[in-house]
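Extended Data, panel c. Modelled sequence:
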Amino acid sequence: MQLDLTKLVTESRNPASENIDQLSTFDMLKVINDQDKTVPLAVEAVLPEISRTVDIIAEAFKSGGRLIYAGAGTSGRLGILDASECPPTYGTPAEQVVGLIAGGHQAILKAVENAEDNRELGANDLKALAFSQRDVLVGIAASGRTPYVLGAMEYAKTVGAKVACISCNPASPMAQCADIAIVPVVGPEVVTGSSRMKAGTAQKLILNMLTTGAMIRTGKVYGNLMVDVEATNAKLVERQKRIVMEATDCSREAAIEALDAAKGHCKTAIVMLLAGVDATQATELLSQSGGFTRDAIGLSK
């Protein structure tokens, strides 16, 4: 099938970099850096759509639903990266945020030919996850036309799930299919068509916002502290102690003692110290508050 890429903003030539191959290394990098500076502004323009998507994801989490990303190539890898960071950072189950990539796990490291052109594969990958109405799908593709992603989005809509998309071309097929279209228009790339650059950066910024925002909205953050962090290595064990100390203004010794009593659970340790209760009582307060640390402390008064 012949594709017409001429109307895609992400495929057009960037006049700012037309002679980049003739520049000194420093000047070449200056062009790239100047273009990168435009990306946050493009993301800022779509904050309303990002906000709506965060709220939908948070509601899905509260009712036991999941966030599923679907993408191909760079977009798929970015979704997998974001999903993989949630369990250690927020103590979430691995299945709560899942990244799908056209071609499966082997495509994470090496391109799988034609996988992104398979519409049915996108639907089948969701079926394999028992995707349901409770879940949220976010399709990711700079072009906004990737068949694999469209197949997943169309299937998600047939089961009644909420569907959002992240693309960098306005009025794309993905944008027309989605309930919420997040479309940061970053303009042409420094190297024509290399959408892993500005488009990829925009996607990464937005994915950061989606999961971080949803985690904050579901009680995974107290102040700006990641109070559900899992201590899976020496650095994170130390981070837990610092989080408890920062949250309660207690001594290191008190933080260690509270964490030991709380079996390494930051939230419980914080509630213990700030509410003046034991671990069992702190656990009950957190249960009553839906896992929100600030609310749990308030219930103790």
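The longest helix spans residues 198-217. This feature is highlighted in the accompanying rendering.
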